[in-house]
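explain this:
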Amino acid sequence: MADLEEHDSDESRPILLDDYSESESSLCCLFLQVLIVLGFFSVVIWVSVTPKSPIYLITNAYIPALDAWNSTSNYSHNTSFFLNLEFFNPNEKMSIYYSDICINLYYSSTDALVGSSSLPGFYQGYKKTTPYEVFVNADKQLWKGNITNGTKEFKACMENDVQYKIVGFKVKHQYRIYKEAYVSVDSNGKMIGEKNIKLHHTSKTITKH
């Protein structure tokens, strides 16, 4: 009988408030840790799936006709404008599909069209740089009337679509890109001023010719 009373006494021992406090503290800590982890992964996912626009650079420009007038070469009738370009994908774990790139070249002073060219579409991995050399054939009549000795400034405009590939999946949405930059050449037809000229976003649409 005494053993039974002693057993009942042990079972009916009241739970102390400290036990509740410790349980609540543990739950709060666990909940806070879960929130921190979820927040961290949310930030990582948001950064990884927010695509950055590719970077377009003009690394060099050259007009053979201008160089010819200052030398004994036979390029005085050459109406080509040579552009060296670089396309850089700044994204982490996100590759890019480029559509055909339309390129127009204008006289910056008059906005008169010098000539047009295009590049075929291509695929680019993340953090990769793709170089291209472009030949823009100028309008002969306009070329004769505007190309003379002396420094000239031109406006290069590019337009194309890009699609992003994220973790092996190609995003359906296409992003339209319009970019432009100004490039200057000296009396010898060679690029002067800033090197690696970055093309900037513009809202203007390139007119197809």
In short: Helices lie at 2-11, 17-49, 64-68, 140-146. The mean pLDDT is 81. The longest strand covers residues 152-166.
